[in-house]
Structure formats: structure tokens, C-alpha cells
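User: Quick one: structure for sequence A, then sequence B.

Assistant: Sequence A:
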Amino acid sequence: MTTADTASVADRADARRALAAGVAPRRWGSWYVAEHRLLAMKGYVGEAVFQSFGNPLIYLFALGVGLASLVPQGVAGVSYLEFVAPALMATAAMTIAANETTYPVLMGFKWNPTFFGMNAAPITGGQIVNGIMLAILARMIVTVTIYFGVILAFGAVPSAWGVLAIGSAVLTGMAIGLVLSSYTSTIKDDRGQMAMIQRFGIMPLFLFSGTFFPLEQLPVYLQPIGWISPLWHGAELGRVATYGLEEPLWLTVTHVGYLSGIIVVGLWATRRHFERRLNR
């Protein structure tokens, strides 16, 4: 065998090893990325745990107990605590979504471009998006479940179907997170867009989505904010589950369909933006 033949055999062996090494990432890439994101979250696990336990306690004491004393008649036939608790749980999911889909997504492209490193391995942009969302979903489920346990302890869940509010809150958070990630994945230069999202996106949703009072009590010209807000749809679903809010069946179906539709479109848009940017 000549030297050239020996080199050719070695090249083919290297190629086979390279192809074999890429099988697992191509198949399980989304889960690898999810594992990476969950390990990265260990860097702020203390803050996450504090938020999971501290936020519901503080909000429920301040609003459900303190402010509720000023509304002794309750809202919509239930106590103020029962009215506000499912909306606060959905808000917790929204906060996680906003935290995990703004700066972390921008960082993966710009300051610590791990997304390009992942994409250099046999992991596609779509798998990276799937992995990020799986990690966010895991964190969200844990936090919302803890939140539900707290409002249950406060006696704010009179219905046996209340546990379904966990699902509605997660649905809300994922819908908002995918809208945000589809936008932040297009940002190339940080010019304060993240702060603008918090001030002019997240905060108005928090205030004008029927979180603290029924949407019908808002001025007519502000009510459309609630109609298009995923948080309002999620809060209403939570109220249906936790205390049996009376509303037409078609409206409950609309809440689920609206949030599900945003998730599908948001996931498609985010995957498309990732693929374009990573393969440019």
C-alpha cells in the first residue's frame, strides 16, 4: 500500500468518526441545549429560589391581605384575594419569560456567542430555540407550582379544579416569552431595547390586563390593551380554574386558542430568526 493509499484510508476513518460523533447532537441537540441552559441557571439559582418563594408571599400579603382589607365586598362575587391570586401567578410566569428571553438571548448572539458555537456543532438553530424554551418551561413549571402551593395555603383556591391554573399560567408565560424571543433574536446592537421592553411592554401588560380589577372597569379606550394581552387571557383562565369565574364557553376556548396560537407563531418566528442569523 502506498503512502497516498494510507492517507486516504486515514481520511475515510476520520470522516466516519466525525459523522458518528454528530449523530447524537443531531438527534438530541434540543435536550443538550436545554441542559446547558439549566446548568447556566445555576449561576443565579439563589435569586430564582428567592423569587419563587418570596414574590408570592410578598404580593399576597401586600395585595391579597393588605389591599383586600380596603375591598371587603370582594370582586365579582369572590374575595379580593381569590380574584387577584391567579392573575399574580400568571404574572410570575410572565416575569420569568421576560427575564429569560431578553438579555440571555441577546447575550448568546453578541456578548457570549454560544449560539454560534452550538451551531458549529451539528445542532441547528431550531434545536437551539427548542432547548432554550425547554429550559424556560422547566423553570416556569417549578416556580408556578410553588406559587400555586402558596396561594393554596392562603386559601385562595376554593375550586377543586384550581390546579389547572398552573397550566394556564405556564401557557401565558410561554406565549409572552416566544413573542419576546422572536424580537430579541433580531437585535444586533443593544441600544436600550431591553429596558424599553420592560417599561413599555411588560409594565403596561401588568397594569392593564385586569390583574388587579376587572378589565371592564378600565376606560373604554384602554380595554383593547387587555383584549390583546396574553396576561389577561391567562389570568381569566386561571380564575375559571381557581374559583369558577362565570364566562361563556366560547370565551374560555378563545383564551386557550389565543395563547396557543401565539406560542405556535412565536416558536416558528423565533426558529426562523435563529436559522437566518446563525447561517448567514
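Sequence B:
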Amino acid sequence: MKYVIIGNSAAAVGAIEGIRKIDTDGEIIVISKEPYHVYSRPLISYLLYGKTDEERMKYRKDNFYEVMNCKTILGKEAVKIHPERKEIELDDHTAVHYDKLLIATGSQPFIPSVEGLESVKSKFTFMSLDDAKDLDNSLTPDSKVLIIGAGLIGLKCAEGIRKKVSSITVVDLSDRILSSILDKEGASVVQSHIEKENIEFILNTSVAKFLDHKAILSNGEEVDFDVLVLAVGVRPNINLIKEINGKVDRGIVVDEFCQTSLSDIYAAGDCCESHDITTDQNKVLALLPNAYMMGECAGTNMAGGEKIYDKAIPMNAIGFFGLHLITAGSYEGDVYTQNIPGQYKKLFVKDGLLKGYIIIGNIEKAGIYTSLIRDRVPLSDIDFELICRKPSLMAFSKIERKKKLGGVIHGY
């Protein structure tokens, strides 16, 4: 059996490890347009911040491909799939045959259409190691940086470069920062913390046009800058599947086995849609843990095993200048709120289940809430009032505690 994986990030690693649990002999080939050993993308901001280096950013050890008996084709891009002859065409006009194929192509930055953007010479995105290196090379202590987008990518970029530049201004169309994961109160807590680092926010507005090193905002303000970072969102890389008439929506559509609508072709990670169990909707969940789990599921099934991926939830664990936050699930239903010094917490309950949460500050034991969501534990089976205030396994029934502490339930 010959397995080919297009992409070399968390989903690819999950797939490799999933395949090797079933098939220790089959050939595995990994194709990636990036020339690097697999690395953790969320750490690129810490690379610029000086908290890590390229060696420590590696998502698996140096001998990972050797141990897993994988061949890598790095620095070359897969440009077309020929499903009728089970071949992948690369940008150097060579071809690679496959028996089972995984698409793990991730996503790419969305570049907005703004008048004058083409005239800005020093502009960057912030998703890859090369992006981070290019941005770093452009910065000087006198640089005035304008970041378009106050989401996760934009703010991690701001944190990464803060000590390297003179000023940072962040502009976003939303009325709050991190609008995809935080409510207004939570966003206010995080914004106040980041502003202490001398980072300025201009919200509720967008860039109308660029004039050399000046951005003219839709509210009439003008912002001077030397370096521009575009961080307004990402788009899944779906073209390889779309071009051969595979089913796509906002992302590549896969079933619970992570198989696409095409024979012997699977997909996993940020290029795909997942089924969010907290909203019962299919959506793109561009998150590293989901990417790994999807990849592992796909790899297991590609190798002839049977595994389903049915616990997807939106989830983010992140920190800015020492302030940590975790969010998960959906924000609908009844709300439990705790807002005390050092911690902002909201839990969302609907239909007798915990559907989502926001925690800012003390994030210890947040995993208990995540477990309640993923496992869809009926709140009537536990002491939820206690868990709201003090998350602890003691609030679970004896049977549930045994399950979570090792799965031993004999005698019950």
C-alpha cells in the first residue's frame, strides 16, 4: 500500500501516526511546498518574541520521519490530482502515484481588496515560518507597524514583535478584539491588558485606502506606518479537491471517517469542514488539536482500520503578554458568570448540557469543562453547581470519576 499525504503540519502528523498503528510496512510519502521539518505554527509569534527557536518549534523530533519510515518531498507543491490514474502532479512536472491519498493542505491568508494596497511595499501575512522570517527582517526599532485584524493571528503577531518596534496600531472592523471567540466583556478584559503594552486599537472601522505609508480609515482617521501586516482571516485550501469535482463548501466536505466524496481520497485539518457537536453544524475549525485528531482518524481509516471523528468543537487556548485564556464550544443558552479579580469565566448551558465556556486568567482545570462538552455529559448526572464554582473531579459521580481516571469501571 502506498499512502501519500499532501501537507506537513498537525493533520499530516496525525495521519502518519494513525497509519502506523495499523500498517507498519506500507510506504508513506509526505509532500509539502514548505521546505521545513514539521513545526508548530502557533509558535511563530514566540519565535519573534525570542521565547523559542526553530529547533524547539519542531512538532516532532528530528528522527520522526525516519522512525515512521516516511519519505518526504519538501519544497515542492502538489498542483493537480489525476484521480483516474491515481497520480499527483508536482510543480516540477514530476508525478507521484498513490493508493490512498490525504489532503492536509491547511489554509491561506485572506487578502482584502483595498485601494492602494498594491503600492504598499512592506506588507506581510503571518501564518508560516517564512512569513515570520520575512516580517522579522523588515523590522527596525523605529518601525511603526499597522496590523489589520484584531483576531488571534493579528494579536499574536503584535505580541511577537512588540519589543522590536517603535509602535503598533491594530485596526479592526469589529467592535471588539478577538470577536470570533470572546464576548464583549471578555474582549474588554483582554484589550485592557494588551493596551498596557503600548499597543493601540482602533475598532469599528476599516482601511478605506492606502497612500504610500499612510492608511486612510473609513472613520476619517489616518494612520502612518512603515510596515503593514494583513491578518484579517484565512481561507481553506480546497482547490485540489474542487478541481476534480470533489464536494466542497466553505471547506472540503468529509464524512465521519474523514473521507472526501472521492474514492480513496481523504482530507483533514484546516482545509476541511468538521461537525461542531455544540451547534450541530458543519464548519471550518482551523485549530491544531482538531487537525491532529482528524488526521489520526483519516490515517487509521486509510490503513484499513475503523475510526470516526465525532467530537469536534471550537476551542482556543492562547495567551497574550502573560494573560491566558481558553474558550470552547458555542455561546448560547443559560449563562453562569464569574468575574472576580484574576479570573473572568462564563459557562453556557443548553438542553441539559454544557455547550461552551470562556475563561480568562486562571485557566487551571479548564479541561474538565472541555471534557463535559466533548463527552456530552448530562449535567443532571454531576454536581454542576460545584463544578461551576470549583471544577473538580469530585463533582462527578463515582463511575464517571473512574472513567476519567483510567477507564476502569469493573464492578459497576
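Residues 288-302 form the longest helix (15 residues). The two ends are 43 Å apart (CA to CA).

User: Thanks, that's what I needed.
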